[in-house]
Amino acid sequence: MKGLLHHLRTQLPAALFYLVIATALILSQHAMVFLAFLALGMPLGLDDAFWLFPIRQLAILPDVSPLVAIFGFAYCLGISGALAMLSLRRAERLGRGGGLALAAMVPTLQILAVIALALLWPRRSEAELRRVGDPAPPYQLAIGIFAGTALVVVAVAVSALTMGAYGWGLFVATPFLVGLITGFLVNRGHVRSMAETFGAVAAAGMLGTLALLMLALEGLMCVILILPLAAILALAGGTIGRAAAKRLVDPRQPFYGLAALPLIFLVDAAMPPEVPIDTHAAVTIAAPPEAVWASLTADRPVAEAPGLVGLAGLAYPIASRIVGTGEGARRIGRFSTGTADERITIWQPGRALAFRVVRQPPAMEEMSPYRKLHTPHLIGYFDTGETRFDLAPLPGGRTRLTVRAGHVLRIDPGLYWEPIARWAIGQNVGRVLTDIRRDAEGRHEAGLAAHSRHGKSHAQLAR
């Protein structure tokens, strides 16, 4: 009992001070969102989601200005940094390590981390902490992880949201620098093992990803798609950062690369790539060209399951409908992400059909807790040009259906993204051809059956 009273007498002022300051920082995010809605003249719902995810209210606005979004994200990132530094000091005094302090960087988790740090008691007295003199203080590890996490969020906000640049700077330079900075900082003054360094780099990446999801800057599927490349580059950067810290180089040198990052973003934005992707596929259908043409131009859904493309959130066709006939007619393609507006350019019944995409839906549907994401890469970075179907009659009443399509990919590095795009296109094309084959063969068999029944009826009447 005396120990508890001593703990309350000695620790309550410090805990109360931490709780008050941290609470004020967290509530300032709510105040920022409230003032933003007031300035925009928009109604603000003070529901449970607002108190847990204040920035979410900005994220779900239908036509929020990019400048407002950038300011909101930047403010939340600054608050996360202030909370992390405050929580690091608190965790150090408690001898608790920096894990909870890192959680203070992530929206919503901030609340739980602050409450936990305010209620926890020290594992060792301050005198013991000074006497032990831990050669590898936990806040050093936490600061390195926080720096990497902040770089992830800032890079995505600047490159993607501000410049609309998806290229070498975001997908190559950024993960390498995240690993380099994190690896250098966590080993500065006390060299850690490779396992600890890689763990810190991985933690920075995971916390950065979580922050992107919570701030509505990215969706989960985009992160998953880039993860293999980013992980390799980040670990390579972490290895170099650890070596730099081990050799006690100039502490400014590892940060010089950060100065070049905005320049790389500018180059990516000024000179976006255009990687052409031509698709060619064919299928043999046990039905005449007339049945294939009827299936190709019918107003019907695509019955085949989307497979892995659907699981990955990439766009896949659901149904199609042609309004009118002949060249210039409108074709409406329904995709999992929206509707494509298309125009018929070639109309040769039983022989060839081609259409050009005038307006297409987003290339993928992100997994996110928000209805609206600030991700420009969903539109305009993958375009489909003209698609053409050719029907060639074969012996035995069969048809060879050939499809050709042109696409343009505008994301670097092309060596990484092009195979993924080709795979997705191939899966969608194969699915469509299989669906047309099954529908055309079904139509042909139904026609033969009807003809057979009609013939039998005539024979019976003749008798």
Largest sheet: 8 strands, antiparallel
The secondary-structure class comes to alpha+beta
Overall shape: elongated
Average predicted local confidence, pLDDT = 81
The value of Rg in angstroms is 30 Å
Percentage beta strand: 15-25%
How many β-strands, per DSSP? 8
Run of helices and strands: HHHHHHHHHHHHEHEHEEEEEEH
Uncertain regions spanning at least 5 consecutive residues = 129-135
Brief rundown of the structure:
With 463 residues, the chain is α+β, with helices and mostly antiparallel strands.
What can you see in these coordinates?
The structure is a single chain. The protein has 463 residues and is an alpha+beta fold. The chain folds into two domains: 2-270, no CATH class; 275-452, START domain (Alpha-D-Glucose-1,6-Bisphosphate, Chain A, domain 4, 2-Layer Sandwich). It is 58% helix and 15% strand. It has 15 helices and eight strands. It has helices at 2-40, 48-52, 56-59, 66-94, 99-103, 109-119, 126-132, 138-162, 168-187, 194-214, 220-246, 256-270, 289-297, 308-311, 414-462, and strands at residues 275-285, 300-301, 317-323, 330-335, 338-348, 352-359, 382-394, 398-409. The chain has an eight-stranded antiparallel β-sheet, covered by helices on one side.
Protein traits:
463 residues; 8 strands; eight-stranded antiparallel sheet; 2 domains; alpha+beta; Alpha-D-Glucose-1,6-Bisphosphate, Chain A, domain 4
Please specify the SSE layout and strand pairing:
Layout: H1 2-40, H2 48-52, H3 56-59, H4 66-94, H5 99-103, H6 109-119, H7 126-132, H8 138-162, H9 168-187, H10 194-214, H11 220-246, H12 256-270, E1 275-285, H13 289-297, E2 300-301, H14 308-311, E3 317-323, E4 330-335, E5 338-348, E6 352-359, E7 382-394, E8 398-409, H15 414-462
Antiparallel strand pairs: 1-8, 2-3, 3-4, 4-5, 5-6, 6-7, 7-8
Helix pairs in contact: 1-4, 1-6, 4-6, 4-8, 8-9, 8-10, 9-10, 9-11, 9-12, 10-11, 13-15
